[in-house]
Amino acid sequence: MKAFNIQPPDETLRPAIQDKIDNLNKPKGSLGRLETLAMQICLIQQTLSPGLNHPCHLLLGGDHGIEREGVSVSPREVTWQQMINFTRGGGGVNMFCRQHGFNLRVVDVGVDYDLSPYPSILPYKIARGTRNFLHEAAMTEEEYERAIQAGVSLVDSCKAEGCQILCIGEMGIANTSPSSIWLHLLADIPLTDCIGAGAGLTKEGISHKYEVLSQAVKNYHATVEHPTPSTPIRYFGGFEMVAAMGAMLRAAELHLIILVDGFIMTACALAACHLYPNAKSYMIFTHCGDESGHSLMLKALGAEPLLRLGLRLGEGTGALCAFPIVDSSVRMMNEMNNFENANITKYF
Predict the structure, then answer these.
(1) Interatomic CA distance for residues 89 and 95, integer angstroms
(2) DSSP state of 48
(3) Sequence-distant (≥ 6) Cβ neighbours of residue 267 within 8 angstroms
(4) Residues whose CB falls within 8 Å of the CB of residue 320, separated by 6 or more in sequence, listed in order
């Protein structure tokens, strides 16, 4: 199993960063969350003059065997249809990437469709969807490792191009189901509190989803005798989710800024931090949506999101919408004058 060497940012620069923030020509602390963001980013990059060069967005696609149990209102074919739509620039993720200057990589990690005729979709397919975790593990250990490595390789290619900030999105019908189970098992939260409507289930649909996932968890406990920390991640996860987790861990290892999107990507962050707690230092949690359990997931991570816009699209759109706030914190450090240079009396 691949091991990551993730160290927390060196704190030596903290006093100098705080001094620079406090001496910008503004009342002390008056830029609030922008100041704490600036501190985090400066520590990640080990500089008083941070940058956000070559922002990259990974859009990872994969299908889920559990979809066969009717846990999603959307049919499986929507995954591959949307993946093709992304190649034509017609998705929400395309719009926001264009707006904010992100380099978009659309990646097939496990879509149940032949996407090889679309050369702009990067081919990292492990299988045509995971197995049905109601009856067996979603993936083998070898497939799990391949998914981790896919995320690592994608981040390495972004880093080689000069990327300093990364966000990740997903396209995978039924992936709220494994996310809910990860939250239940990794954060010890009652399963009923972790399950929501996903893309639009009715009350009856949510009840059915709970019954299916509850039985899947019972089957897991009955068959897995000696779980390791990664066992529940592998048993229930999607290929796109494990690849996202691998990407987050590699990005943290490389000291990149990671913008974490909504429910699915926060679940991936939870899994990554479950294995490597230091990874959290490199994450900025951008959005809390309406999916049941998302606020509980953020609370379990001790994270406060930048936005609450009620988004539930996925694709990483919440992270992209939050980027201007992160950009403002960096511009504050690089473009605001200080009291001395502006000839303004420092009154505190």
Answers:
(1) 7
(2) S
(3) 178, 179, 182, 183, 241, 297
(4) 57, 93, 96, 97, 99, 100, 102, 167, 259
Q: What share of the chain is helix, strand, coil (3-state, %, to 5)?
A: 50, 10, 40
| Adjacent-strand bridge partners of 108 | 61, 123
pTM: 0.95
Query: Catalytic annotation on 315?
Result: yes
Q: Is 59 helix (H, G, I), strand (E, B) or coil?
A: strand
Residue 27 neighbours by CB distance under 10 Å: 10
Give the tens place of pLDDT for each residue, 197-254. 766 788 888 999 999 999 999 999 999 999 999 999 999 999 999 999 999 999 999 9
Strands 56-62, 283-285: parallel, antiparallel or unpaired by DSSP? unpaired
348 — pLDDT class (breaks 50, 70, 90): low
Predicted local confidence at residue 342, as pLDDT: 67
* Residues listed for the chain: 348
Q: Catalytic pick from 145, 170, 291, 315?
A: 315
Placement of tokens 């929400």 in the chain: 92
Residue with token string 């019954």: 211
